[in-house]
Amino acid sequence: MGVATDSPVNSFSSDDFAALLDAELDTASDTSPDREDSDADEDKLSSESISVKRRKMEASVDVEEIGTSSSYQMTENSSVSVKTDICTHPGVFGGMCIACGQRVDVEEGHVSLRYIHKALTFKDDEITRVRNRDLKNLFRQKKLYLVLDLDHTLLNSTRFMDVISEEQYLMGQIDSLQDIPKGSLFRLDSMHMLTKLRPFIRTFLEELSPLFEMYIYTMGERAYALQMASLLDPTKTYFGTRVIANDDCTLKHQKGLDVVVGQESATLILDDTEVVWGKHKENLILMERYHFFASSCRQFGYSSKSLSQQRSDESETDGALASVLKVLKRIHGLFFAEETEVGSSEIIPLDSKDVRQVLKTVRTEVLKGCKVVFSRVFPNNVIAENQHLWKMAEKLGAVCSTEIDSSVTHLVATDAGTEKSHWAIKEKKFVVTPQWIEAANYFWFRPPEENFPV
User: Fold this and answer.
1) How many whole angstroms from its chain centre is CA 338?
2) What is d(CA 393, CA 437) in angstroms, rounded to the nearest whole number?
3) Rounded distance between C-alpha atoms, residue 426 and residue 288, angstroms
4) Among 70, 249, 306, 436, which one is least packed by beta carbons within 10 Å?
5) Strands (DSSP E) found in 362-401
6) Contacts by 403-408 with C-beta closer than 8 Å and gap 24+?
7) What letter does residue 331 receive in the DSSP assignment?
8) d(CA 412, CA 431)
9) CA angle at 293 for the pair 454 and 156, rounded to the nearest 5°
10) What secondary structure letter does DSSP report for 116?
11) Collapsing DSSP states into helix, strand and coil, what is residue 342?
């Protein structure tokens, strides 16, 4: 199976450059050229080829339609009259301003959307306009945006050289690349690796597609990202060209929503790593990592055996993706529910809502009604309220305390022999390990306490 290195591009013939984005992101209305033709087109981006595209435009263009302060005319013989002193150069395609046709150097303050086309950049204020327009269209469809990580979230990959003897049996269970929709374990000879899709992923994507416009966002290389996208979405039904890789990121070792054509207030993120989303943690739903291969466990320093070594896998019905699917559906339903202001019968408009607030509300329901005290979980010389596990419990709706009293429901401990542990057992309180809170954070429900004994 071939791996494309750049996203295909439609004919650039609209008099409103935002229409280009609409066309590129409308995955159901475009037939992509093959790789060879796409490369040839990109290599020929020159003033002559752009002029040919411009000649396809109407003889005159309404300034308000393109949403810029430019004033210009285009005629059939491609002569251009441009007031260069007022054109804001809202975007650049192939080195030329998409509004006035002048050759322009890309400067600071531009956003590159290389995953749509490597020659496409927009000014910050213009991408804001496009986002606002796209949001209105999305709300009409009752959809939100969903950004999905790949590795350890939707799938797990390993190199041939990292496959251990206990995993050799997998070579007899490889699924054919000719029948991807029915497979879950693939051998990718061109990339020298095996890839295992997470259980329930097909149903997960199918059920979320009517509710969310979905993006893939990975820190991996573009060739790898596109190959994984072809396994998850062979017909380009779910993602289209919305596949973002490491060379699209604007900050090193960080992911950002600045390259996503979607408003932050309407975007959810699903990822197994929190630290890469430094600016967007309020949008993030943290996933339990999927460690199918032994190399994945070694990568994170785990001594336990991987799923493949145990010859098992996550549950389809009770696994991580099935659990988070329920959460995403609930958040979507709450966001689009008709709500009124307190003391008023006026319905709150969608554009004034923020999915981050809905996410926060749903998260606080997980451990609502629980009062937690910690015992020997944190070092003596630290402030407990500043510790990650304490903050996690509070975000899940629990009340945390350093003192025991009758209102305490749970003691989180690492040692059953402490004074607090003896008290909790005597008073018939729940005594659980810190993993109980972590499990609640991953699965978005209160886990059975008996599964986490100290």
Assistant:
1) 26
2) 6
3) 34
4) 249
5) 371-375, 399-401
6) 403/373, 404/373, 407/371, 408/371, 408/372, 408/373
7) H
8) 6
9) 105
10) T
11) coil
Retrieve residue 67's tokens: 């949403």
How many other CB atoms are there within 10 angstroms of residue 159's CB atom? 12
- State both tokens at 19: 């229409």
Work out the end-to-end distance of the chain between its first and last CA atoms, rounded to an integer number of angstroms. 50
pLDDT beyond 60 at 301: yes
Residue 165, φ and ψ in degrees, nearest 5: -60, -35
CA atoms within 13 A on the CB side of 208: 29
User: How far is residue 442's CA from residue 308's CA, in Å, rounded to a whole number?
Assistant: 22
Closest listed residue to residue 194, CA positions, set 308, 275, 109:
308
Q: Which of 186, 207, 192 is nearest to 326 (CA)?
A: 207
| Residues forming a β-bridge with 400 | 372
Mean pLDDT of the chain: 83
- 358 pLDDT band (50/70/90 cuts)? very high
CA-to-CA distance for 332 and 328, rounded, in angstroms?
Answer: 6
Closest CA to 256 of 242, 277, 229, 241: 277
Q: Give the pLDDT band of residue 328 (cuts 50, 70, 90).
A: very high
Q: Using an 8 Å Cβ cutoff, are 367 and 398 in contact?
A: yes
What CA–CA distance (Å, rounded) separates 94 from 112?
Answer: 12
Share of the chain above pLDDT 70, in %: 79
Confidence of residue 368 (pLDDT cuts 50, 70, 90): very high
pLDDT confidence of residue 20: 52
CA distance 202 to 196: 13
| DSSP designation for 175 | P
Q: What is the pTM of this model?
A: 0.79
Q: Is the pLDDT of residue 16 over 70?
A: no
* pLDDT of 43 strictly over 70: no
β-sheet bridge partners, residue 155? 151, 197
Helices (H), 27-163: 35-43, 47-55, 63-66, 124-140
Residue type, 378: F
- Write out the DSSP string of 281-317: GGGEEEPPP---SHHHHHHTT--SPPTTTTT----TT
Query: Is residue 348 predicted with pLDDT exceeding 70?
Result: yes
